Amino acid sequence: CKILIVEPIPEFCNLIENQHKNNEKVFVEKNGISTEEKIIQLSYNEDATSQYINQTNEKMDVKCYTLEYYLKKYNIDKVDLMQVNIEGEEYPLFEKWIQGDILKKIHYLQIQYHFVGDDYLERKNKIEEGLRNLGFENQWDYGMVFTSWKNKNFN
Hints:
This protein is α/β, with parallel strands linked by helices and 155 residues long. The chain has helices at 10-19, 67-73, 90-99, 120-133; strands at residues 3-6, 26-29, 32-33, 38-43, 59-65, 79-84, 106-111, 136-141, 147-151. A four-stranded mixed sheet has the order 6-7-9-8. Helix 3 packs parallel to helix 4 (120-133). It is globular, with a radius of gyration of 16 Å.
């Protein structure tokens, strides 16, 4: 299998690359993922880095690309497992993905939700309703920690 890791924090990327430097099937992108190609500014705070929560004065610019871009770049037609932990960007990302066809390519999906905005719980519920409507079945749910979904229509 191929493993694609999209990670915008340089120190984490370097660690991952060093751990897998002899594995030709692990690819690391030192960028972010979003609904469109753009540059975002992250408030850097180690493993709590976010564009939505300003916890520090240290900022960093991150180039983001779409999932479609990464799938095309690495010639990936189907995704066996996608884990999404993107510090609040999960809401606009899944709201867009649910409206399109991209989720048809994903078999298993794990999502970590974050307490971002006043309406995060409502948005989470709408995303999960959208996933169910697309044929995803919840495998397990640890609330805002992680949820796991299986695409019952995956071929």
